[in-house]
Amino acid sequence: MSASSQLENANPVIFERSDERLLTAADEDEDVHDPIDDREIFDLIRSINDPEHPLSLEELNVVEQIRVKVNDAKSTVGIEFTPTIPHCSMATLIGLSIKVKLLRSLPDRFKIDVHITPGTHASEDAVNKQLADKERVAAALENSSLLEVVNQCLSTRSA
């Protein structure tokens, strides 16, 4: 974001983070079959940084566990995300960041569908089309400037 630009949503509503997932001995035992579930995927994406604010996507309520759908047996993951405002120009970047995080974290067998929660963005269809297009996603990740911004969204923020 350039110094001369203004925030689209200067005063976003901040939500409380959910509790950390408690791991059991079975969760940590590599010999026990442990299918990937909604909470595990939510834990992967909840801390992604918003590109405009020093807050996570969970803190802005852009991602919620209830909008994560996983079918481990069919190797599918579906994520709905909700931009903070209906005309958010960062929606594609947010969706791309979610998709990249999952592509980097999950086994190759998974088909990943990331899209905007229906009815929450003015350009919902266009953004969803871009995020569903494998060639467009691959081309975006070949752009070093865009990849740098995505990596910043995926980096761990210092406290």
Question: Would you count the extended β strands for me?
Answer: 3
Distance between the termini: 21 Å
Strand and helix order: HHEEHEHHH
Q: What is the number of helices?
A: 6
Low-pLDDT residue intervals, each spanning 5 or more residues? none
Shape: globular
Rg over CA atoms:
16 Å
Mean pLDDT: 88
The SS-based structural class is alpha+beta
Largest sheet: 3 strands, mixed
- Give the helix proportion (percent range): 25-40%
Portion of residues in beta strands equals 5-15%
**Strand line-up across the major sheet:** 1-2-3
How is this structure best described in words?
The protein has 159 residues and is an alpha+beta fold. Helices cover 35% and strands 10% of the residues. It contains six helices and three strands, in the order ααββαβααα. A three-stranded mixed sheet has the order 1-2-3. The longest helix has 15 residues. It is globular and about 50 Å long. The model has no long low-confidence stretch (mean pLDDT 88).
Task: Explain the layout of strands and helices.
Layout: H1 25-28, H2 38-45, E1 68-71, E2 76-81, H3 91-105, E3 111-116, H4 124-132, H5 134-142, H6 144-154
Parallel strand pairs: 2-3
Antiparallel strand pairs: 1-2
Helix pairs in contact: 3-4, 3-6
